[in-house]
């Protein structure tokens, strides 16, 4: 069920419980609709999976031949990667986390490196993995809704956080003339994105950029150029004292009046001790609702949308996270059995004390 919560700022209208905001007039066909989202998955998923599989198979075999190690080392490394996610300390950087662990492992069980709330229609889909994928495409649709409905047909949209390529690909599919710039701090994601764009015939209007948002050089040439900027699951990686700074850096790319669209989550209750450790290990910091509000305020942003979903709307995601044939084939039976259970437990611990929120804001 969906809940509506205020942030203390002057709040825009929120969705009423259980009612996703309807697509506006003139929205592209299939937008925010399961049948349109299914069509997208049927085109995108086989290409995405093949590209990721090929990318890591090639890089692993070149690694193996360079070091003359037996292929078994790769399997052991995979097992270590899965176990590492239990919370083995925070020695890695954010790019390490994605390159070494998240990109490959999570692409086997999820569509994106994020979760989506479950609608009544998605709950009725029989296949658990398809439910997860649909909730994630729906999450992209909901996050990008203001841009999809009001950006100029041939506008420029900027995505911060390429992840596993579902975001930019979904939007390029919905809006066949927009230009998209997708930014990530992790180089494999950009290269995988480039290969997918090539395969989908989208290379002429989607570009990828590797850089740290906190480095002004990364986005300087994009200042004031975007009809919308979107960040799904990115703000948690900004350290607590730098949340406002990160949001300001994203907002600096907007044209006047254009929306910054964020999918995020905020704590309504404390995390367990296990989750506190696991989140530090994942280099994620989730704010309280007030801290989120303060960061927006500190970044000079005014809210235009704040749609919050309670834990109930998102928790089926944790139960639907389970092993599958692809995971077994690539990582072997032990990882296929253990890893989804770890992730499912992690997601329950992450989602139960939180609300998930789709917010939009404009520069004051
Ligand atoms: C949890 S993933 C989300 C990916 C994707 N948006 C999704 O919803 O699946 C976080 C993304 O943020 C990017 N990211 C994190 N910190 C960043 C920074 N300082 N600069 C640029 N990108 C960053 C990572 O590279 C990654 O793509």
Furnish the topology, listing elements before pairings:
Layout: H1 34-67, H2 72-84, H3 94-109, H4 120-123, H5 128-150, E1 156-160, H6 166-174, E2 179-184, H7 187-199, E3 206-210, H8 216-219, E4 228-232, H9 243-251, E5 260-267, H10 273-281, H11 289-298, E6 301-309, H12 311-314, H13 316-320, H14 325-351, E7 354-363
Parallel strand pairs: 1-2, 1-4, 2-3, 4-5
Antiparallel strand pairs: 5-7, 6-7
The structure holds S-adenosylmethionine.
S-adenosylmethionine is lined by residues 94, 98, 112-114, 160-164, 167, 183-186, 189, 212-214, 232-234, 237.
Strand pairing plus helix content: what structural class?
alpha/beta
Bound molecules: S-adenosylmethionine
Largest sheet features: 7 strands, mixed
Instruction: Compute the number of strand runs.
Output: 7
Superfamily (CATH H level) name: Vaccinia Virus protein VP39
Strand order, largest beta sheet: 3-2-1-4-5-7-6
CATH class: Alpha Beta
Give the H and E element order.
HHHHHEHEHEHEHEHHEHHHE
Distance between the termini: 33 Å
What is the count of DSSP helices, taking H or I runs of 4+ residues?
14
Helix fraction by DSSP (H/I, runs of at least 4): 40-55%
Average pLDDT, rounded to a whole number, is 89
How much of the sequence is in beta strands? 5-15%
The CATH topology turns out to be Rossmann fold
Poorly predicted sequence stretches spanning 5 or more consecutive residues? 1-10, 14-18, 64-72
CATH architecture: 3-Layer(aba) Sandwich
The best one-word shape is globular
Count up the domains.
Answer: 1
Gyration radius from CA atoms, angstroms: 19 Å
């Amino acid at each position: 069920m969906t809940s509506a919560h205020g942030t203390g700022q002057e709040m825009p209208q929120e969705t009423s419980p259980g009612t996703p905001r309807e697509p506006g007039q003139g929205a592209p066909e299939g937008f925010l609709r399961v049948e349109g989202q299914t069509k997208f998955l049927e085109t995108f998923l086989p290409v995405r999976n093949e590209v990721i599989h090929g990318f890591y198979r090639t890089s692993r075999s070149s690694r193996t031949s360079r070091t003359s190690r037996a292929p078994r080392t790769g399997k052991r490394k995979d097992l270590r990667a899965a176990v590492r996610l239990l919370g083995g300390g925070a020695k890695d950087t954010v790019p390490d986390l994605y390159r070494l662990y998240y990109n490959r492992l999570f692409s086997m069980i999820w569509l994106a490196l994020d979760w989506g709330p479950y609608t009544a229609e998605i709950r009725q889909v029989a296949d658990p993995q398809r439910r997860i994928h649909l909730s994630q495409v729906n999450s992209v649709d909901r996050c990008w809704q203001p841009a999809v409905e009001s950006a100029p047909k041939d506008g420029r949209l900027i995505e911060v956080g390429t992840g596993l390529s579902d975001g930019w690909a979904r939007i390029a599919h919905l809006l066949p003339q927009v230009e998209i710039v997708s930014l990530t701090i992790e180089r494999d994601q950009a290269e995988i994105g480039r290969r997918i764009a090539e395969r989908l015939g989208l290379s002429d209007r989607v570009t990828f950029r590797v850089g740290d948002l906190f480095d002004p050089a990364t986005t300087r040439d994009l200042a004031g150029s975007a009809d919308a900027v979107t960040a799904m699951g990115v703000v948690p990686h900004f350290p607590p004292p730098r949340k406002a700074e990160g949001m300001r850096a994203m907002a600096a790319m907007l044209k006047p009046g254009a929306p910054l669209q964020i999918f995020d989550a905020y704590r309504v209750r404390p995390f367990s001790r296990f989750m506190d450790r696991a989140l530090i290990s994942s280099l994620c910091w989730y704010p309280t609702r007030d801290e989120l509000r303060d960061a927006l305020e500190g970044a000079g942003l005014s809210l235009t949308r704040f749609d919050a979903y309670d834990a109930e709307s998102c928790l089926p995601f944790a139960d639907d996270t389970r092993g599958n044939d692809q995971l077994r084939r690539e990582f072997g039976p032990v990882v296929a059995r253990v890893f989804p259970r770890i992730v499912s437990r992690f997601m329950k611990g992450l989602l139960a004390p939180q609300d998930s929120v789709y917010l939009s804001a404009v520069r004051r």
